[in-house]
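Page 47, continued from p. 46.
Same chain as before, 401 aa.
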Amino acid sequence: MLKRKTVLLGVTGSIAAYKAAALASALVKQHAAVDVIMTKNAMEFITPLTFEHLTHRKVHTDTFDRGGPEEVSHIALAERADLAIIAPATANVCAKLAHGLADDMLTSTLLACRCPRLIAPAMNTNMLENPVTQDNLETLRHYGWTVIPPASGLLACGAVGPGKLPEPETLLRYVLRELALPHDLMGKKVLVTAGPTQEPLDPVRYLTNRSSGKMGYALARMAMLRGAEVTLVSGETALEPPPFVETVPVRTAEEMFRAVEARFEEADLIVMAAAVADFTPEEVAENKIKKKDGGLTLTLRRTKDILQYLGAHRRPGQVVVGFAMESENLLENAGAKLEKKNVDMICANDVKQPGAGFQVDTNVLTLITREDTRQLPLLSKEEAALAVLDRALALAGEKQA
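Result:
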């Protein structure tokens, strides 16, 4: 996701510098070009050779190391960086950057950067919590830096508390949020539903479906990467919640309805990708239903139709997108749903088509609007999510025109 992007990675004198090597490797695996700058103290913990083997690029350590007569090294590094991240960042480097000091290669380069800048403090808990350090971090935020919160745990000094450098996977998520996709949804609020609902029969059993939640989670993550403020209302799944997304866990169709009802008015785009139960038991047994001879008769009642509620109560300018999984007459059934629910788009798929059913990592969607019908090929769910968001963004633009 970082192809043709250049990341400037600053490494300072912390025992956590070894994690920076793993971050550099992760960035390269995302096809980023990685320029590493190390402070003199950082080289006491890890060698430049490690980063050069991982990035296949020269590591920069000296302000006066001339790259050639045609460029000033620290200015050239700053100008070609699409993003800069310092991980780990010592209290000393945080203080220098907060006050514009430029006395080595790293601080001189960062002072010249105009790209997004991230900093991940890593230090002893007392040093981190010292009011001077907290003031410096707040100053960095004031000047546009993103300060990545330190993790808590056992520190190298033996103390227990905040101050650990987050794991490389966490740091990578911050980089991806800034660089992976164009931020064409910046300033937009997106509400996504995902996963199955569970309708209880008794304290042990419930009615549900085979939805894994993967499509809805992909939509939430892609919207986040495109700059949106995302809320994900999710039934129970085995998936890790997407980073930087407000996740609201629910179980039943009624709980999902209430969660959506409370939040939909503020949303600019609503994508209903959840597999919501159409029916729920009329009564829930207080105790476990015992096995007995003969059959069991269940009386079911309709659940609230969330998509129809949204279509009836939407405010002007909102874009509402629904999903329809069909086993027959795909276009006819999905088109009828578009009109009945009064929504802008239905994303339809055929449960019988290979690669388009439940619990797989791909999908085959047909995007149906009042203007046209667009058949998408077999795509990963992330690629399908991007296509859905592209079409929804175009519909939003048409509403504003």
